[in-house]
Write a structure and sequence with these properties.
The chain has two domains: 7-251 and 459-482, Aldehyde Dehydrogenase, Chain A, domain 1 (3-Layer(aba) Sandwich), CATH 3.40.605; 255-447, 3-Layer(aba) Sandwich (Aldehyde Dehydrogenase, Chain A, domain 2), CATH 3.40.309. Helices cover 39% and strands 23% of the residues. It is built from 15 helices and 22 strands. The strands form six sheets. It has a seven-stranded mixed sheet with strand order 15-16-17-14-13-19-20, sandwiched between helices. The protein has a five-stranded parallel sheet with strand order 10-9-8-11-12, sandwiched between helices. Helix 2 packs antiparallel against helix 4. The longest helix has 21 residues, at 97-117. It starts with a strand and ends with a strand. Bound molecules: NADPH dihydro-nicotinamide-adenine-dinucleotide phosphate. NADPH dihydro-nicotinamide-adenine-dinucleotide phosphate (NDP) binds next to helix 7 and helix 8.
C-alpha cells in the first residue's frame, strides 16, 4: 500500500481535516507512486499558523546559543538521513541521486552555518549628538513567517529559508511544493528528531492556490519568503503589500554565459554544458543563453556539442546517469513546446533534444539535451525561462557587444564570463545586470555564507543566505537611551 505522509502541526503529525490526499509520482516511472501527502484546507493551515504564532514568544525569548543548538542537532539528524532524503527527492522530482545527496550535504552545511551565525552581531552602537544618550540599533524577529518553496531544490531551498528564520527567533509555517512535498516533510522530520519545541516549525502540504495563498492572506503571518515562478511571486508580492508585511521573492532567470576569444575553451565549453544541463536544466541559475566571440565560435561550438553528445539521460537512481527526467508532465510538455517554438521562430537546431518517452509516458519524462544556434532577440527560446535542458548559442563581436546582449533580458539572476584577461572580467562583472557573477565558472552554484539573489525580474531585490538572510528575517529597532 502507498505510504501516507502527514502535516506537521504543533509538534504532531496530522491528517488533513478534509481527509483528502494527493499522490506523488516518480517522473522517471510515472506509474510508480512515491507516497500520498495531505491535500490540506485553510482550516489545517489556520491551526498551523496559530501554533506558530503562539510558540513565537517562548522561541524568540531563547538565547541565540540555545536556538543555535537546535540547528546543530538538526544538522546531526540530517547526517543520519542523507541517503533517505536524497532518494526521496530523486524519486519525487527526478534529478540524479548524486545531485540530491550533494544537496543534503549542502543543507547540513547551511544548518551549521546558521547555528553559528546566531552568535554574530544583531545591532550597532552609534554616537549620539547628546553625550548623555546611548544610541543603538537592535534586530528583532518578525514573528510567525511563511515559507513557500519550489521543487527544483527541494532540500536546500527550504533549509536556507528555515534555518535563518529560526535562528533569528521567528517561528515558521512551511509549504513545500506539491512536486516535492514528501521530501519537504522529511526535512521537517529532522527538526522533530532534533527536539525542536512544538509549534516552532510547522509544515502544511496542499495546493499552492489554497495553502500558499492562505499563508499570504493570514493576519498572523508577518513575512513571506518565496522561491518559484514569476507569476506566482508577483501575486504574492501584491498580497504582502496589501497586508503591509515583508516579502522576499527569488524567481526565474535567463542566465547568459559569455565565452571570449582569450578563454580556456576546454574549461569554458565543459562548464557551460554542466551549467545548462545538470539538474536537467531546472535551476533558476542554469545557463540558457551562450554568447561566443565570432573568432572562436566554430571550435567552441564543436567542443560544446562533444560534451552534449556524452550526456547520458536516464533514471536518476542509476549511477551513470548525468541527466534525469524533467520533474513533471507539465514541465515535459512545456519544454517540448519551447523546442518546437524555437524551430518555428527560425533558430537553427544543431542538437535535437528528442523526447525519449513513449506515448503512455510509462518510461518517464525524459528529454535529451537540446542545442540551438542563431537565436535572436524576440524569440521565446532567447527571452523566456525554459527550465529544461535547452541552450541557445549566439555569436558576439566582443566584450561590449556581449554585455549589451546579456543585459537585453528582463531577468538578472546570474551571468558568467570565460576569459583570461583580468580587465575583461572586471568590466563584465561591473556592467552585467546580474546578482550572481562567475568569472571562469558555471552560472550555477552558490555558497551558504554569501548573498544569493538577482536583479530585475529575477527577485524582489532582497538577498538570501549568508548575512543577507538576517536583513529579511529581522526588523531593526533604533533605541535611544538617555541617562
Ligand atoms: P510555482 O511558482 O507555481 O510554485 C512555487 C511554489 O509556490 C510552490 O510551493 C507552489 O505550490 C506555490 N504556489 C503556487 N501557486 C501559489 C499561489 N497562488 N500563492 C502562493 N503560493 C503558490 O512554480 P511551478 O512549480 O509551477 O513551476 C513553474 C515554473 O516556475 C517553472 O517552469 C520555472 O520556470 C519556474 N520556477 C522557478 C524556480 C526557481 O528556482 N526560480 C523554481 C520553480 C519553478 P504547489 O506546488 O502546490 O503549486
Amino acid at each position: 500500500m502507498t505510504k501516507k505522509y502527514f502535516n506537521f502541526i504543533n509538534g504532531s503529525w496530522k491528517e488533513a481535516l478534509n481527509g483528502n490526499t494527493i499522490e506523488s509520482r516518480n517522473p522517471a516511472a510515472p506509474l510508480e507512486a512515491v507516497g500520498n501527502f495531505q491535500s490540506s484546507s485553510k482550516e489545517d493551515l489556520s491551526e498551523a499558523i496559530i501554533a506558530a504564532d503562539q510558540s513565537f514568544e517562548a522561541w524568540s525569548s531563547l538565547s541565540y546559543i540555545e536556538r543555535g543548538s537546535y540547528l546543530y542537532r538538526a544538522a546531526e539528524e540530517m547526517e543520519k538521513m542523507v541517503e533517505e532524503i536524497a532518494e526521496t527527492a530523486t524519486k519525487e522530482m527526478g534529478k540524479t541521486f548524486i545531485e540530491t545527496k550533494g544537496e543534503v550535504k549542502r543543507s547540513i552545511a547551511i544548518l551549521k552555518y546558521y547555528a553559528g551565525e546566531g552568535m554574530q552581531q544583531i545591532g550597532e552602537v552609534i554616537p549620539s549628538a547628546d553625550s548623555e544618550t546611548m544610541l543603538y540599533t537592535k534586530r528583532v524577529p518578525l514573528g510567525a513567517v511563511g515559507i513557500i518553496a519550489p521543487w527544483n531544490f527541494p532540500i536546500a531551498i527550504p533549509i536556507w529559508k528555515i534555518a535563518p528564520a529560526l535562528i533569528y527567533g521567528n517561528t515558521v509555517v512551511f509549504k513545500p511544493a506539491s512536486e516535492s512535498a514528501i521530501t519537504g516533510l522529511k526535512i521537517v522530520e529532522v527538526f522533530e528528531k532534533a527536539g525542536l519545541p512544538a509549534g516552532v516549525l510547522n509544515a502544511v502540504t496542499g495546493k499552492g492556490s489554497i495553502i500558499g495563498e492562505g499563508l499570504v492572506e493570514n493576519d498572523h503571518i508577518k513575512g513571506i519568503s518565496f522561491t518559484g515562478s514569476n507569476p506566482t511571486g508577483k501575486r504574492i508580492a501584491i498580497g504582502a503589500v496589501e497586508r503591509g508585511i515583508k516579502y522576499q521573492l527569488e524567481m526565474g532567470g535567463k542566465n547568459p554565459s559569455v565565452i571570449l576569444e582569450d578563454a580556456d575553451l576546454d574549461q569554458a565549453s565543459k562548464m557551460t554544458v554542466d551549467a545548462a544541463m545538470k539538474h536537467t536544466g531546472q535551476k533558476c541559475t542554469a545557463t540558457s543563453r551562450v554568447y561566443i566571440q565570432e573568432s572562436i565560435y566554430e571550435k567552441t561550438k564543436e567542443k560544446i556539442i562533444k560534451h552534449i553528445e556524452a550526456i547520458k539521460v536516464g533514471n536518476g537512481m542509476d549511477e551513470d546517469t548525468y541527466m534525469g527526467p524533467v520533474a513533471t508532465k507539465s514541465q515535459y510538455d512545456s519544454v517540448l513546446a519551447y523546442i518546437e517554438k524555437g524551430k518555428k521562430e527560425g533558430a537553427k537546431l544543431i542538437y535535437e533534444g528528442k523526447s525519449l518517452t513513449n506515448e503512455l509516458r510509462e518510461e518517464g519524462f525524459y528529454i535529451e539535451p537540446t542545442v540551438f544556434e542563431d537565436g535572436k532577440e524576440g524569440m521565446a527560446i532567447v527571452e523566456e525561462e525554459i527550465f529544461g535542458p535547452v541552450i541557445v548559442l549566439m555569436k558576439t563581436s566582443g566584450l561590449q557587444d556581449a554585455i549589451t546582449k546579456a543585459n537585453s533580458s528582463r531577468f538578472g539572476l546570474s551571468a558568467a564570463v570565460f576569459t583570461n584577461n583580468i580587465k575583461n572580467s572586471v568590466i563584465f562583472s561591473d556592467k552585467v545586470d546580474a546578482g550572481m557573477i562567475k568569472v571562469n565558472g558555471e552560472t550555477t552554484g552558490s555558497e551558504p555564507h554569501v548573498p544569493f539573489g538577482g536583479m530585475k525580474d529575477s527577485s524582489s531585490h532582497s538577498r538570501e543566505q549568508g548575512k543577507a538572510a538576517k536583513e529579511f528575517f529581522t526588523s531593526i529597532k533604533t533605541i535611544s537611551t538617555t541617562i
